Amino acid sequence: MAEGWRVFVHGGVIVPTDPGPAAAFLRTSKPGAYTTTRTLDGGSSLLLWERHMARLSESLQLLHTAHPHMYPHLGNAVQVKGLVEPSVEESLSKALNLRRPEEEVNLSILVCGSNSRHSQLGSCDCDVYVLASSYRAPGKDEILPAIRVAVMGPGRKLARAKDSLWASTRQGLESVKPSGTNEVILSNNGNALLEGLVTNFFIVKIRDEKIQEQGESQRRTEGGDNEHNLSDYEVLTAPLSDGVLNGVIRNVLIEVCREAGIAIREISPSWSAHHMWKEAFVTNALRILQPVKSIQMPASWPHELDPENFRETEWQICNLEMCGMVTKQIHDLVMDRIRQLSTPVINFARK
Which domains are assigned to the chain? Predict the structure, then answer.
């Protein structure tokens, strides 16, 4: 079996043409809404399927509202699950046979307008494409290696919609990111940090009131240790209103943190306070949660946010714990919840 297998389905039928990796496929496809998910635990379940369908439906409506002439075919209420499941079933039926024991199945699902008078759902005028491919996931409950990220801009204009055009738009920033960095964190002003090109972004810091308590204690007693409990920390991530994607892992993470008593605030992390940051991580459906070990910020934020203006810049660097106590705890909570909410693959067996 060839390395890096792919299965391409259009309208419930396998297409022999290989469209290439998911990013290349999205760049060359008709514009539309898409989502990316994958299997878990050796292909046994599909990650957060119901939530992916809800977010895909939301993206379709947002795209139609923002660009009615560009997306007239999305104006009607689209029954997303019924539209996409035949193609997902067909792709999984072959992909699960190609999957090696150490692999999971990565699914990219695109819904866009049909060029045919006879579309898949008649009056809906929508087409569905599903690209299944191999994905080397970490072992059960393992965490991916920490990455380096760089802050560049600007943020997305219609961030809450997962739009296939973004795969082309983000190329400008991907092409100029510093060597050795794995992800770009978007910002409009060089201070408020929003999201990654393909991830949501979180930082972990000591709560302000705990820092004040610690300062008073240290003034009363010389020295003192800096050990902290989980309750001493808080997690920050940009709110949807600031312009970030409504990520399915982001939402699960916020839920489990609140249930577990881990302080989390939806407020864009400010670079001006980066000296207070202890840990950071990014999330998406493929990586689940991946620690960040360093953040690079331009020493001088350009007035014009053309990607080329970030090519020849000097950088400030914020180094972080690569996988600290809070990150590990949140990762475990998220994995437990994901397993509870994911859909058994057997549910997608062809009838």
Answer: 6-137 (3.30.470.10), 147-339 (3.20.10.10)
